[in-house]
Design goal:
Largest sheet: 6 strands, parallel
Number of helices: 7
CATH topology of the largest domain: Rossmann fold
CATH architecture of the largest domain: 3-Layer(aba) Sandwich
Number of strands: 8
Shape: elongated
Mean pLDDT: 83
Length: 305
């Protein structure tokens, strides 16, 4: 069975909104259900609201991956036949060359170089045949793992994106590279959730399957908790405030009423039945988005509990 390595990065501000008891993050649940040695998977909370620590998070993931691959290499080489250098030549009366290296020292140095090449070739073959990479992320975290995929030592077998958005100068976005199969769950524009965010990672050099769901941006990521107390919250699907799309505009990432912001009667309880219907729909579609990502993972052979 291959050795599976998982990299998971959650959405913006997840360190603040994630509740370990509620497990209100599909990225976290995917990480938790991923069946591999604990040392072979990495979870990182998403960046801050300004997106200025994206590079720091990706650098941390790279350091972790480098160390993990080094440990796997040591363990693997311990099971393989050691390098056997050719016998040293019997050299007599040879003076050091211009670099001060004797013929004997030169031959020893060449053997060390040959040993390193032998071991690296063995490990490269092991990576090609026995290691599989998987990535998953939500929101900016999704765009971050998509960027990171291009740096992997081999093509990732699967990547799950929960409503990928870039919204940071430190994220490349755009075409996905170095991934065999990507499943991308995106919010449906008709929900008017985070209208200004858009989406990224819409094409790939590998297989790519995308589907839209009628839930909020947070709902796609597993945190379906409609905010209704401030202007930066996401009101779409709130069971208290019903939004009438024709009276709404986008402002600061939130859908707000064009006449009197969120206090206008169009947000209010003038249509509680419709508000409750949308709330239940958004909650159901949140679960469907996660099921969609997991379906793709299973098609790729990913070991999920």
């Amino acid at each position: 069975m291959p050795t599976y390595i998982l990299i998971a990065i959650d959405g913006t501000g997840s360190k603040e909104w994630f509740d370990i008891k509620k497990k209100n993050s599909w990225t976290w649940r995917f990480y938790e259900d991923f069946k591999t040695d604990a040392a072979n998977k990495k979870f990182r909370h998403g960046p801050d609201s300004a997106g200025m620590n994206v590079t720091d998070i990706l650098d941390d993931v790279q350091v972790w991956l480098n160390r993990r691959m080094a440990d796997i290499k040591v363990a693997y080489l311990a099971t393989q036949p050691p390098y056997k250098p050719p016998p040293l030549k019997k050299i007599e009366g040879k003076s050091p060359n211009l670099l001060g290296i004797s013929e004997l020292g030169r031959e020893s140095l060449l053997n060390l170089i040959a040993k390193d090449a032998y071991e690296q070739n063995l490990f490269n073959k092991f990576i090609r045949e026995q290691i599989e990479f998987c990535l998953v992320g939500h929101s900016r975290g999704a765009a971050m793992v998509a960027d990171f995929a291009a740096k992997l030592p081999k093509r990732a077998c699967f990547m799950g994106l929960y409503d990928s958005v870039d919204r940071s100068t430190q994220i490349t976005g755009g075409k996905i590279r170095n991934v065999g199969l990507t499943y991308h769950a995106m919010r449906d524009p008709s929900t008017h959730s985070r209208d200004t965010f858009g989406n990224t990672n819409l094409t790939s050099d590998g297989s790519y399957v995308a589907k839209r769901f009628k839930t909020s941006h947070g709902g796609i990521g597993g945190d379906y908790n409609p905010s209704n107390s401030d202007l930066t919250g996401d009101y779409s699907g709130s069971k208290k405030y019903y939004q009438d799309p024709k009276d709404c505009i986008s402002m600061g990432g939130a859908v707000v009423n064009s006449i009197n912001l969120y206090r206008n009667s169009h947000w209010g309880e003038n249509n509680p039945q419709e508000a409750l219907r949308r709330y239940e729909q958004f909650l159901s579609e949140s679960k469907n988005a996660d099921a969609f990502i997991r379906q793709g993972a299973k098609l790729a052979g990913i070991p999920l509990g």
